[in-house]
Amino acid sequence: MSRFPPPAGPNHAGHGWLPLLLASPAVITLLLVVGAAIAIQFGPDDLSFYRRKALRAAQRGDGRSQAFALECLLALEPANRATRWELALVYRATGRAGLFAEISADLITPERPGYAPAQIDAARRLLDSLERQTPVGSSEQDRLLRAAMAHLRQALADQPKHPEATERLVDLLEALGGAAEARELALTLPAAGLTASMSIRKAWLESGGGAAKVPDSALSQTAALESMASQADAPGHVRRAHALANELRGNLPAAFGVWIAQLKPDRPEFRQAEARRHLVGLHIRRADEAFNKLPRDYESMAESVSRGLALDPNSQPLLERLVILANPSGTRAGTSPAQPVRDKAAAHLNDLLAKGTSPALLHLLLAGDYHRNRRQDMARLHFELAHRADSKAAVVANNLAWYLINTAPRDPERALALVNSALESGLANPSFLETRGQIRAVLGDDAAAVADLEAAGRALGMSRAIHQALARCYGRLGDAEQAKRHEELARGKGP
Q1: Strands (E), 114-221
Q2: Cα(472)–Cα(351) distance, integer angstroms
Q3: Distance between alpha carbon 160 and the CA centroid of its chain, in Å?
Q4: Can you tell me the distance from the alpha carbon of 221 to that of 23, in angstroms, rounded to the nearest whole number?
Q5: CA angle 418, 421, 422 (to 5 degrees)
Q6: CB of 175 within 8 A of CB of 274?
């Protein structure tokens, strides 16, 4: 018997898959469809694939490959603004400025809301150009400033409450004296998640710069802010927020240092104006601290007032303190330790008057000082000089009118013309009505006087002087009952 048996016929028992190959074409087609569906369901996702490629290329610093991956992503999602902006930034980084401009032209639009990160980038570049390479001339500086603010506003129109756009716009509004709008904008940001600089800035705006009203949670950010501001490349808005924090905490020397640095000639004009405003405020605080000490430190007060006026000769708060120092209505005492300081302040005051610095305000302040000290002749003189310096000042006209009917020589007709001009100025002040009522009473126009005095009394409260004038007017009008009532109220016997 042969050891090698002849080949047997076909045996399919050990190959169960062979019949499947011989199955009908319909079954094969079904399997192919199922397989394709599985591949689609569980195979690589194109978006994820190109995102990973873009990320890896960025990590390697391979801008060309990153751009290619982002271009593929943009082909899959042409409306994705974040991808478009990321691609534009890669184009800019790799020197393809033309391609960057093509994309950014649509995303960065000062006339309508655009993509917020792109708008912020445009504003940031404008502000860097403005503050690091300040152009000569205020017109070009104003143009760049307006353009930067327009981009920030459009960024916030696209993404309201965007932290960086909000902080940068608040910083600019503060610098330009728009505290009300800056405060309103700052309040749109929730307290949670604020940067240290924005937390301080928000607290500053809410408190009006008063440290007593600032919560400890805001002041606790000062240490973190100081660390950030001390870095050589610290952004300007962080340094300025650090100055605000120092003002709130009472660390005036540190605040002085930041704002003095903003006064350099190469700084933009609006930043220099902001620095002067803050420095004047700091000098006022120092002057008040010296005045409120016991014993009063007139010398330190005088130094602060003088330094502040060197920055802003027209500052009303500083001029008020200069008049206090000069003490024009007081008696001179050569033996007083403060007298040399007072004499120096008086000389400074006279020098300002001679130069024509804020003459209306200075004469008004002097008139007020003489009035408080019952020096009516000098008060009337300075009200007259204040009116000559500014004939449209309603408060000056009203006060001069009062003196023209209460001190000799009396001139009620001119007084009436003056108070009418004050009332016509649009400044709604009920004390003007009282003055006119008193003048009309002197002139014998009793019915008109009663109308003015009653209206003034409702707004201001019925003073003894108003009751006395009303008693006279009602008596001349024949209303004995009202005249008697006001006489009793003037003597304090009424209800």
Answers
A1: none
A2: 47
A3: 18
A4: 77
A5: 90
A6: yes
